[in-house]
Amino acid sequence: MKVKISIVFACIVIVTGMFYKYLKISEDEVIQNVANKNLIEIDIAYKSILDTYLLVAKKHFYDLGKNEKALELLFKFKYADAKDKPLIRGEFFRLLYRDYEVLTEYNIRQFHFHTHDAKSLLRFHLPYYSGDSLKDIRTSVRVANSEFKIMSGFEGGKVFPGYRYVFPIINKGEHLGSVEFSISFDGIERKLKTILPFEAHEIIMSKAVTYDKVFKDYRDFFVQSLFSKDYYLENSEISRVTEKVEDNPLVNRLSLLAKESKNFDKKLQQKKSFSIPVTVQNRGYVVTFMAFKDIDGIDAGYIVSYAKLQEIVEIQNRYKNIMFAGFFIAALLFALIIIILFQIKENQEYTLKLKKFIDIQDSIVILTDGKKFKFANKKFFDFLQYADIDDFLSKHSCICDLFIYNENFFSLANVKAGEKNWVESLLNLSGRNRIVSMLDKTSMPHAFTVSINKYDKVDYIINFSDISDAMSEKLQLQKQISRDQLTKAYNRVYFEKNIDLLMAHNASEKRGTGVIFFDIDFFKDVNDTYGHKVGDDILVTIVDIVKKNIRIGEQLIRWGGEEFLIILPANSIDEIYKEAEKLRKIIEKHDFEIVHKLTCSFGVTLHEEHTSINESIIKADEKLYEAKKSGRNRVVFSFT
Question: Is 562 annotated as catalytic?
Answer without folding.
Answer: yes
